């Protein structure tokens, strides 16, 4: 098997496990906190939000630094450091006896969440620009699917093995995946030419981002997407309860949420391939409109099967956004700063993971759950307009030209 293909397969599996580990505690987080003692519902709900959000809040600040270290010292050492760090923090979560201990371990997990942007930088560095969308789309399938299927996997394991052993099993799986990375990943050694490439300071990287309006806008689009995804996530169980009177609500809520992940699995690679030929900015514009449309029927669903169907269709659309963003960064950022730029983009996504649940909870409390779907639809529509305006302002012809024409002119 070719080294590039083997690297891609290994990183796909590893990214799936790491992404799933970040969201797997969602179905039983409140129950786990309740097991620490006698607490009021308000206390449990408040700390559940703190414990879940702190990982992404810390990662928002730390991710660019991991990307920068990878650009300078190589990506594989960073993968091993963060992989073992995540596995260790999850392992000790199984021994916690208080909510504050759990909070501190989730904070530690946020510090070592540089695994995913580093893996993207590693694969991006070995991939020609012409097929970046297809390849990074394939890799992103692991990350997105892991994040979306994490709650379902976590809920099932908690029912089967209990809370403590769920942490142990997850830690062992990530540890094993990291060992496979250590043994199986072959990172391209820097040639003399690449060693002579200009290295960029943090200020120069930020200047590059701000001088490229479309790149900066795409990072904000990443923020909006994650805010939209996570705004409805904590409310799905309640929404499923409104649509269905069954007793196994947790499983049905996981099914409704994971339907998006299955849509991702089917479409992500195809959207990336289309972006390679059509242009990633143009594909992003198409997908933002489709996502905006697909959220509206979710608010109007009259039964559980309708909600699952519409979330599946939404998953097909949203599955192409992240690989298109990553492939665009691959094209516009010099190779020696790509890890750091991808880290900044991931920071925006992590910030959306924090804002989304807070926004969804506040809005549903005042306006109802259905209104959250409508607002999320508007959020995607807003993202479409600012991206369209940015692309048109930067290079109006790029919206209408084929990718091949842009390559020729560049």
UniProtKB/TrEMBL annotation:
InterPro entries: MFS (IPR011701), MFS_dom (IPR020846), MFS_trans_sf (IPR036259), Tet-R_TetA/multi-R_MdtG-like (IPR001958). PROSITE patterns: MFS. Gene3D superfamilies: MFS general substrate transporter like domains. The keyword Protein transport does not apply. It comes from the Bacteria. Pfam families: MFS_1. The keyword Transmembrane applies. Its main location: membrane. Coiled coil: none annotated. Residues 7-395 form the Major facilitator superfamily (MFS) profile domain. Keywords: Cell membrane, Membrane, Transmembrane, Transmembrane helix, Transport. It is a multi-pass membrane protein. The chain crosses the membrane at residues 12-33, 45-66, 78-97, 103-123, 135-153, 165-185, 215-237, 249-271, 283-305, 311-329, 341-363, 369-391. It is found in: Cell membrane. This is MFS transporter. It comes from Robertmurraya mangrovi.
């Amino acid at each position: 098997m070719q080294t590039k293909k083997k690297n891609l397969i290994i990183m796909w599996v590893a990214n799936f496990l790491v992404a799933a580990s970040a969201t797997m505690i969602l179905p039983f987080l409140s129950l786990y906190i309740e097991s620490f003692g006698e607490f009021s519902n308000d206390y449990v709900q408040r700390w559940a939000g703190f414990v879940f959000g702190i990982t992404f809040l810390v990662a928002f600040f730390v991710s660019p630094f991991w990307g920068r270290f990878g650009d300078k010292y190589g990506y594989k050492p960073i993968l091993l450091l963060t992989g073992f760090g995540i596995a260790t923090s999850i392992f000790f979560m199984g021994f916690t006896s208080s909510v504050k201990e759990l909070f501190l371990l989730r904070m530690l997990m946020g510090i070592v969440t540089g695994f995913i942007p580093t893996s993207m930088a590693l694969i991006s560095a070995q991939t020609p620009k012409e097929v970046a969308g297809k390849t990074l789309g394939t890799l992103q399938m692991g990350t997105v699917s892991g994040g979306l299927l994490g709650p379902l996997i976590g809920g099932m394991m908690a029912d089967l093995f209990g809370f403590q052993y769920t942490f142990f099993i997850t830690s062992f799986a990530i540890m094993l995946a990291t060992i496979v990375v250590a043994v199986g990943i072959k990172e391209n050694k820097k040639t003399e030419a690449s060693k002579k490439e200009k290295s960029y300071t943090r200020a120069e990287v930020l200047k590059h981002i701000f001088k490229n309006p479309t790149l900066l806008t795409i990072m904000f689009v990443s923020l909006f997407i994650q805010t939209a995804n996570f705004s409805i996530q904590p409310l799905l169980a309640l929404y499923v309860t409104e649509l269905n009177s069954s007793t196994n609500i947790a499983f049905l809520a996981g099914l409704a949420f994971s339907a998006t992940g299955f849509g991702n699995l089917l479409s992500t690679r195809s959207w990336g391939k289309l972006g390679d030929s059509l242009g990633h900015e143009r594909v992003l514009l198409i997908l933002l409109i489709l996502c905006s449309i697909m959220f509206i029927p979710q608010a109007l669903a009259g039964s559980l099967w309708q909600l699952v169907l519409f979330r599946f269709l939404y998953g097909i659309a949203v599955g192409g956004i992240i690989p298109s963003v990553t492939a665009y960064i691959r094209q516009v950022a010099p190779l020696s700063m790509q890890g750091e730029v991808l880290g900044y983009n991931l920071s925006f996504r992590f910030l959306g993971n924090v804002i989304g649940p807070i926004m969804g909870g506040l809005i549903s409390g005042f306006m109802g759950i259905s209104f959250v779907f409508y607002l999320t639809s508007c959020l995607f529509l807003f993202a479409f307009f600012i991206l369209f305006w940015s692309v048109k302002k930067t290079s109006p012809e790029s919206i209408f030209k084929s990718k091949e024409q842009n390559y020729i002119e560049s």
